[in-house]
Amino acid sequence: xxxxxxxxxxxxxxxxxxxxxxxxxxxxxxxxxxxxxxxxxxxxxxxxxxxxxxxxxxxxxxxxxxxxxxxxxxxxxxxxxxxxxxxxxxxxxxxxxxxxxxxxxxxxxxxxxxxxxxxxxxxxxxxxxxxxxxxxxxxxxxxxxxxxxxxxxxxxxxxxxx
Length: 162
Description:
This protein is α+β, with helices and mostly antiparallel strands. It contains six helices and five strands, in the order βαααββαββαα. Strands 1-3-2 form a three-stranded antiparallel sheet. Strands 4-5 form a two-stranded antiparallel ribbon.
């Protein structure tokens, strides 16, 4: 499950090329990643809070909501074919054999699984539909605008150094 908050990729690619040619490129790249991450962290925190607010019926094993919340992360890519900033809910392979927990908890249709007491019986379960999509969608324009500002500041910093 991925929500892309990409900005103008061509400008980001050109900026990455300028970073390589500049002697202080590592420091500028670190600043670019740090400020981009700071822009998206409030959305990450909101998504984590949304999944943690899901009602629980109790389970003896690891906590599903906490494990899924820990897998919500911001990824920044400044080079390559598809540069950008992404808020991602990664899979949970070791959590109760429930690899696609973030995706299934977000799905409006829910999921089916074997009953704990009787594995021959299939049970339908609903998570918290829209915990990721709805949370990340509401401020998408604001974050795109802020990420463009981050790139513009980095470009201005490069222009000053040239």
